[in-house]
Design a protein that fits this description.
Length: about 475
């Protein structure tokens, strides 16, 4: 026991020493682009995370690069220092501690790399990895153009895209990652390179779903398409209307010909303080059509509020920032069944209703269509590694999330959050409704989304890692996120 404690103490000290040496060398090479604890720029980055779990980590220093070359130089320095680890942060949406920040190592705050440049023929938008989707949409709106990107404009391009990326436009054009025509990326040896269908095509495919396992993406070149205003309907229903809402949701998902202009998120919200459930629906139609027929059944369900508007993508994506709170995510994917959605609610209500930690907690269970037509687009752009195909049929994704203010409740919240997910998956499996796919951008740290891509894709990812990162920099020096081992 004493030897184990001594070893742990030694390795912690080694990491601290490595970080100090690393930060000193980075400061020598990159000067004011490196900030240290207590400095205002360091504090700005620390205060920008969406979750308290991430904000509470304390890196030894923070890099705010102003060019891809800065990133390349930093990686080259870091890999030369034993014990130096790093994390990569975009807009800081990932809730789990360590996914975009690090204790004692180096955090790359990519938000200064946020340029947006439209190609001469307007077919490709080059976006710095630190940009938010709102920056992208505000840039493109005057051109009547869009790209497949995040639905919340405050989410980052660099975080969402390598995990797949569900967009309002995904049924029409595929995952966000399927619309990347080129990645500019810094590899584990500090090399700055590009990956696309004709150059490093295996890396190109791996980056479409493989998250932070291969390099630091510094720029995304995204395919654009014509886009004007959207039709947006927001509905709220009393929980007593859940059967009708779930049936309307399911009828949209299972339609013989899924309407590719449809973007729907149905959310079960529960507040432990008021002990009240409510159902909200964000029903977006990507054409300027008032009361689109695809949502007629849903709109006919008696509601407590109902608003519609025709608006621009940028205006709709400009959501209010969430105050810093503790967060968690977990996910699963199911074949459509209105009856099983009722089972999901019963499980959630049975496990969450009586849990009321100090300060309260809000649970949000989002249900989002994953139609076969959405995943069919991947084959047109070199494929991805997500492991879903049209043969899987129409599905829907569940995102269970929670927000709460009291950090002392974190272990209890984590424990209780696992219970409904496990029960829901168990029942779905028994009924033949559980799909293997776990959407990595929604996954909990204890889940295995990379394995859910299938054995063949996982082996492919491991092979690409060995070819482009033979020293395993992004498996060992970037400990956050989902690793290939």
């Amino acid at each position: 026991m004493k030897s184990t404690l001594a070893f742990l103490s030694y390795t912690a000290a080694a990491r601290a020493t490595g970080a100090n040496i690393c930060c000193a060398q980075l400061q020598d090479a990159l000067d004011t682009k490196i900030t240290l604890p207590g400095q205002s720029t360091y504090n700005t980055t620390e205060n920008s995370y969406w979750s308290l779990q991430e904000a509470n980590l304390q890196p030894g220093c923070i890099l705010r690069p102003s060019s891809p070359q800065d990133v390349a130089k930093a990686v080259s320095i870091i890999v030369g220092v034993d014990g130096c680890t790093f994390a990569i942060k975009g807009q800081g949406h990932a809730p789990a501690a360590g996914f975009a920040n690090i204790d004692g190592g180096v955090t790359f705050d990519m938000t200064s790399l946020d340029s947006t440049v439209l190609s001469h023929d307007k077919s490709v938008l080059s976006v710095g990895a630190g940009a938010s989707w709102l920056q992208v949409y505000e840039y493109l709106d005057p051109y009547n153009l869009a790209v497949a990107g995040g639905r919340n404009g405050l989410v980052g391009v660099g975080g969402l895209t390598p995990g797949g990326g569900i967009s309002h436009f995904s049924p029409r054009v595929g995952w966000a990652c399927d619309n990347v025509v080129n990645f500019e990326v810094v590899l584990g040896d500090g090399t700055l390179t590009n990956a696309n269908q004709t150059s490093n095509s295996d890396l190109y495919r791996a980056l479409k779903g493989g998250v932070n396992n291969f390099g630091v993406v510094t720029r995304f070149d995204l395919a654009t398409f014509p886009q004007g205003n959207l039709s947006v309907t927001k509905l709220a229903h009393d929980i007593s209307q859940r059967k009708a809402v779930f049936q309307a949701f399911t009828d949209i998902v299972v339609a013989p010909k899924f309407d590719v202009d449809t973007s729907l998120v149905t959310v079960l919200l529960y507040n432990s303080t008021s002990k009240a459930w409510v159902i909200s629906n964000s029903a977006v139609y990507t054409q300027p059509v008032v009361n689109p027929p695809v949502f007629a059944e849903l709109a006919a369900v008696p509601s407590v509020s109902n608003s519609s508007e025709i608006t621009s993508l940028a205006a709709y994506a400009k959501e209010a920032a969430t105050p810093p709170l503790n967060w968690l995510f977990a996910t699963a994917t199911f074949k459509p069944s209105a009856k099983f959605m009722l089972d999901i609610f019963d499980i959630l209500n049975g496990t969450l209703y009586s849990f009321n930690p100090e300060g309260g907690i809000v649970w949000s269970i989002a249900l989002e269509p994953l139609p076969a037509v959405l995943v069919s687009h991947a084959a047109k752009t070199g494929g991805n590694v997500l492991g879903v195909s049209p043969e899987d049929g129409n599905s829907y994704v569940m995102l269970l999330s929670a927000l709460w203010p009291n950090s002392a409740s974190n272990p209890a919240v984590d424990q209780i959050s696992r219970e409904p997910v496990a029960k829901i998956e168990s029942q779905a499996r028994a009924k033949g409704l559980l799909q293997k796919f776990q959407y990595i951008n929604y996954a909990a740290p204890y889940q295995k989304p990379l394995a859910s891509y299938g054995a063949k894709n996982l082996e492919f990812l491991k092979g690409v890692s060995k070819r482009y990162d033979p020293e395993g920099v992004f498996q060992t020096r970037v400990p956050g996120g989902f690793k290939l081992a």
